[in-house]
Amino acid sequence: MTDQSDHQSISGESLEDFDRPVPCPLNFSDAITVEAWVESDAYQPESLQALVSKWRITDSFDRFDGYDAADTDGLDTRGFFGAVFDGRYVYFVPQNSGIGSAGRATGHHGNVLRYDTQAEFKATTSWSAFDASGTSGLQTCGYYGAVFDGRYVFFIPRTDGVDLHSRLLRYDTHGEFTSPGSWLAHDVGQAISWQSAAFDGRYIYGCPGYEADRKTDHCAVMLRYDTQGPMTDPESYVLHDAAGTGGLNLGCFDGAVFDGRYTYFTPLGGVGQALRYDTTGKFTDKSCWQAFDAGEVSGLAMGTCVGAIFDGQYIYYVPYANTVAVRFDTSGDFTDADAWSAFDAAGTSGLPASGYDGAVFDGRCIYFIPFWEGADPGSGFHGNVLRYDTRGEFSDTSSWRAVDAGKTSGLNTVGFNGGAFDGRFIYMAPWRCGTTASGGPIAHGNVLRYDTVGGNASFSLRAVDLGHNGGLCAAVPGPSFLVNTGNGVLNVRANRSLSPGRHHLVGVYDGRMMTLYIDGVPVAERSGTGRIQTCDVDISIGRIQDGLGRFDGRILEVGISAAARDADWVAGRYHNLSVT
Q1: pLDDT tens-digit series, residues 438-460
Q2: Of 432, 451, 470, which marks where a domain is finished?
């Protein structure tokens, strides 16, 4: 390691050379350059592989904040199913405000809510909304989950309150959010409720819920959309009926997650009956699909689930209206019960710890997003956030904590459906806080936010980052560069995976712009301002400090500068390292 007044270099031959954190003598203001020369045959999408970070997850579990986003821009912005992050903005997916309006018999709406993560959380000017309900002349209301493919945000269709539908909605992030010209819709023509989706970098996989009768008729007809094809072309869509896979009576899924090869569909109606698809095979080939009964038959007692999350090794299925969290070890056989484990979280920290929708992984902990406890004990919609620390044993109660965040910032912060993660903050999507006398939902717009690092972070350069982070949303961000500032976290992403082999990654922030370079070429940039957060956290190489995110490969050299290097400097560094 060599130090200069504004530069620090670290080199080694293997990850073992970096097992201990390295002190950082540099002082950052509003400029930084972080580089890493790396080599790997396994830049596995969705596995969170950190290269060099000054980033530590806080031990405390009390950094909650709330904001009432209802009535943003004069629209009824209540009742959302999931949220997705595009690198700067969080989009909340419109579902049901609980009351009929605008000539509709139900409260199912198309009012998309958006928050600018580089602006003050509680400032009304940080929030905007757009009524997308009549896009392309279609009834575009009632969605569940979203996918960001690097340019477009796709909203997954569910029900408009009268009919189940497949009217896919798309927003072009290169256009103005409130301009109708930035929006497009297409009716795939299936009377099926799609309940969130997965994304593998090219294909979107819709999770089938119900057909015909949205309460009883469970469906296993999988929908795949090729994002490289025209959205309005029927040839871009393929269907596959996965019913009967593995001899199980499969149907009704709620959320999915991608681990770099397989797409896992979360069982809601078919209790405990998990399903996965091998994306390296043909979508309609039954041999590419596997199913496993993780319910009573296996002894795991998986109940109904909504959403799933991946930490790089394990798939965690989120318990809906019950307390049993189940996970699958992706290094094992999907149909082998020994690759599965379960934990009953009931009573964690003296709370019921029952009933969740979606989850978030911050590099160390899994956070389960609170929704509804279920009919038994039936105390209703809640704000009891449940957290598992991956450093501890899954079955050890000391690895688990819960906190009641149901009254935050003077708001009734309960009943959420999924959320999004910007690298520092978790945003939980507001859904409902009760039920009317007639059985209808009482929706709300109270967004609950949790700060995972506080002042314990300055920057993080990653070879792979997570896009399926919220349990009910999807993206494949690939390499990323994060800088923690007084204005929040700034985030720039390549939105594509690295090819196997040796690469030079550089993240630059100059106080006005974030730029990510791969092999001497700028691949992404995003504007942003703010002074870099100072902290006494050491530098961790090849992982998140005290957490996971371990890099699967070799890190040959790391460099950190308290200055913003220009494009010529980056190109020169890549050339010099390539010839040595």
Answers
A1: 888 999 999 999 999 999 999 99
A2: 451
